[in-house]
User: Which sequence fits this backbone?
């Protein structure tokens, strides 16, 4: 039986899911977490959906074997590839990044014109189109932005080159006159400054990381699986690649909460 004492398992292709982990730590500070980043096989966003599915299920199996009380699929590409399978395969509650962000965007839009920026894998899977399929009066415009992940991992979150690329990527969404845009990739919350600078204040940005953390709170609360009193929570960080690299990039991107990274597989 699932126990309140067990940790929350958070999975991502690599580092980007740390934006989700940070939102979860902010909103659920008393919870233990185990974060697994499949950095040895990242990026997922340039791979085929069957390939992403195989890798993601292997990582989720690993987290379930660690006895987690819930799974958070903190990766848009992986959520696109495995969500339905994962819900059938595991008995613990599962949250992911796509549906919570889609719901928030539906509530935020006034014009009914919503943009989503994401990896090529997420765009190809049509997962956001599926999420919006039953929503009346909302039109979705999807734009893959593959270079953004490389910029973030190189530590570049501003400057003329990135700004020029952001202009090119976002132009179709500006021409479509969207009033709300989903950051449909875990790395993109780190680009909020440049995205909002290019798009202007009139476009509401929806972060899938924040929305996923809220959903995780709600699901665990409803299942009676949350700690409600202050406690010293533990945080484990696992990677399939180099722990040193994970710790270096993780600390740089996330301001220091990543430590003692262990290698698995
Ligand atoms: N985590 C991935 C996502 O949200 C981005 C990085 C990758 O391509 O692996 O789609």
Assistant:
């Amino acid at each position: 039986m699932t126990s309140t004492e067990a940790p929350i398992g958070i999975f991502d292709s690599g580092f980007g899911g740390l934006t989700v982990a940070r939102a979860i730590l902010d909103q659920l500070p008393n919870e233990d977490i185990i974060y697994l980043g499949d950095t040895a096989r990242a990026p997922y966003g340039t791979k085929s959906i069957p390939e992403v599915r195989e890798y993601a299920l292997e990582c989720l199996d690993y987290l379930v074997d660690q006895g987690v009380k819930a799974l958070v699929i903190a990766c848009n590409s992986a959520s696109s590839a495995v969500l339905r399978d994962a819900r059938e395969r595991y008995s613990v509650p599962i949250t992911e990044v796509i549906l919570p962000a889609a719901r928030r965007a539906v509530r935020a839009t006034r014009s009914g014109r919503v943009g989503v920026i994401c990896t090529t894998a997420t765009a190809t899977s049509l997962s956001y189109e599926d999420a919006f399929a039953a929503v009346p009066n909302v039109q979705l415009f999807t734009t893959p932005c593959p270079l953004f992940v490389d910029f973030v991992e190189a530590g570049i979150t501003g400057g003329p080159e990135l700004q020029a690329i952001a202009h090119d990527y976002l132009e179709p969404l500006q021409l479509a006159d969207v009033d709300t845009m989903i950051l449909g990739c875990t790395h993109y919350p780190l680009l909020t400054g440049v995205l909002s600078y290019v798009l202007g204040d009139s476009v509401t940005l929806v972060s899938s990381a924040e929305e996923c953390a809220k959903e995780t709170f709600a699901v665990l609360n409803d299942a009676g699986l949350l700690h409600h009193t202050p406690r010293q929570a533990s945080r484990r960080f696992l990677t399939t690649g180099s722990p040193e690299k994970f710790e270096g990039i993780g600390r740089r991107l996330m301001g220091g909460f990543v430590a003692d990274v262990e290698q698995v597989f």
Summary: The beta strands are 8-12, 33-37, 70-73, 94-96, 113-118, 139-144, 180-184, 204-207, 235-239, 262-263. The chain has a mean pLDDT of 95. Residues 4 and 122 are 33 Å apart (CA to CA). The chain is about 45% helix and 15% strand.
